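Morning F.,

Quick status update on the modeling queue. The single chain you submitted on Monday has been processed. Sequence for confirmation:
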Amino acid sequence: MSNLFRQLLQKVGSGSHTTENLAREEAATATKMMLLAEAKPAQIGAFLIAHRIKRPTGEELAGMLDAYEELGPKLQPRDSEQPVIVLGVPYDGRVRTSPITPIIALLLTTVGKTVIMHGGDRLPTKYGLPLIEVWQGLGVDWSGYSLPQIQQIFEQTDIGFIYTPKHFPLTQTLWEYRDQLGKRPPLATMELIWSPYGGNAHVMAGFVHPPTEAMFHTALGLRGIKQFTFIKGLEGSCDLPRDRTAIIGLSSPTTPQQLERLHLAPRDYGITSKNVPLVSPQQVIQDLKAVVAGEAGEMMQTALWNGGFYLWRSGVCADMISGMTTATELFKSGAVAQKLQQLISCLANHSSA
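Structure tokens below.
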């Protein structure tokens, strides 16, 4: 098996003049061999850094997703035909700006949408604040539940979370390589558009570098995903920025192979141009709890800016203005707080295992 992997390594690591892109099937094979530790440690380290230097293609990302589809966990389809919203954020977390993603998940499920997130603990290379810790600060600890329990919670509350250390432990050894290499390999790019769901999904993912968006588009097209939203968000997340115009790529309802472009300027909607800095995890939790309680402030501005967009994009509201108005009403009425309490109660009713 190591001889087969060596052939794949030779293709991506042969230098600027002779390197070759992998076919989709080859990328899937390489990913599976790394996850299953069928390749030698030296080969895995070399492959990850060589592939980063080469840069991945959309076809290679599709192959990596194929491997995750085969080996990874999946929440099973629900009776509803509406697509599940999968929010993809960088696993290595946030270090400069406060995240709003869990609040958006609560907001969307308050109005009947379904949401799945995924991620792990503090991970390289940034070791930033991950989603799992934000949820824990809000009173929701996803880390102790089995996949069947998460499935039940998902069906009862419309929110699910794939906690990779427990639900996809094969990925954990690769994080050691990321730490030792000090760079994020293309696997980290692929994770942003991974959908751990067995049914129809609307993949919403953040990105930093513009070429990434084109790779996302190609990969999801090859995988048959017709609904997607790509956001040049804060620290690569799908949180809309407030300090600049939000650049967003949207799937076309009539021609999924085309990418529609949307630019949203915060000032056009009365949003101040200031991102909320990440001072400390404790402050993030305090600010998010204030939003859930309907209290005005800088974090509420972030919540309304993002909430308005996601309520519009998911089809709940006709436009951004009505989306922001609806988000304001849901926070102030206590509906989002009630949703959080429902989620906390549901987890309490399922003994962790």
